[in-house]
Amino acid sequence: SFSTDEVIRKRLLIDGDGAGDDRRINLLVKSFIKWCNSGSQEEGYFQYQRMLSTLSQCEFSMGKTLLVYDMNLREMENYEKIYKDIENSIAAAHEKISECKKQILQAKRIRKNRQEYDALAKVIQHHPDRHETLK
């Protein structure tokens, strides 16, 4: 009394990534049993070729899975490198921001001093210079 969803879920759990490996292994076992019980040499050779074909499919599938696994590892390393580069860029940006804040404070102080100097210069210009005062 299994529902279709349960059957599919169970097959996916058995099959792993859904590459059909369980079906290939079952086919290989059946071919081996037929090969063992083959009556004629022609039938035995046919079952033997069928087993070789199934084995090569399994090897191909395994090789493909290993390549995907290696690719995923390299991608993870690449993403970690990108993550570190981004962290370093953020840290450098924070340093630059704090340096710019210091420069802004210094520029404000210089501007304030210049404004005070200009105000004093205007006041001084209203008074006669030393030469005139001594006369």
From TrEMBL:
Organism encoding this protein: Neopipo cinnamomea
Designated name of the protein: THOC7 protein
Membrane-spanning parts: none
Keyword Nucleus: yes
Annotated InterPro entries: THOC7/Mft1
Subcellular location: Nucleus
Role noted for this protein: Component of the THO subcomplex of the TREX complex which is thought to couple mRNA transcription, processing and nuclear export, and which specifically associates with spliced mRNA and not with unspliced pre-mRNA. Required for efficient export of polyadenylated RNA. Plays a key structural role in the oligomerization of the THO-DDX39B complex.
A Pfam family annotated for this UniProt entry: THOC7
Residue ranges the record marks as coiled coil: 76-103
